[in-house]
Amino acid sequence: MKNIITGEEKRVCLTTDHPAVQCGIAVWVDDAGNAYFPEDVQNPFYELKEVVEE
Question: Tens digit of pLDDT for each residue in 34-45?
Fold first, then answer.
């Protein structure tokens, strides 16, 4: 995930195992356990891109 304002990038994963989950909708969570926004919401400040590890 990349913050399009600051340029900061963080690795996030989609999970339903977090206190920020509501109604079973998964949220994006970083390695430190911070939740950002639900799966079904487009956030105008963040860009999501898939990382493929080789």
Answer: 999 999 998 999
Q: How far apart are CA 15 and CA 36, in angstroms?
A: 11
**Please, what sign has the CA dihedral across residues 48, 45, 19, 30?**
positive
Compute the distance between CA of residue 7 and CA of residue 33 in angstroms, rounded to an integer: 20
Query: Which amino acid, 10?
Result: K
Q: Which of 31, 35, 32, 33 is nearest to 43 (CA)?
A: 35
Q: Is the pTM of this model over 0.85?
A: no
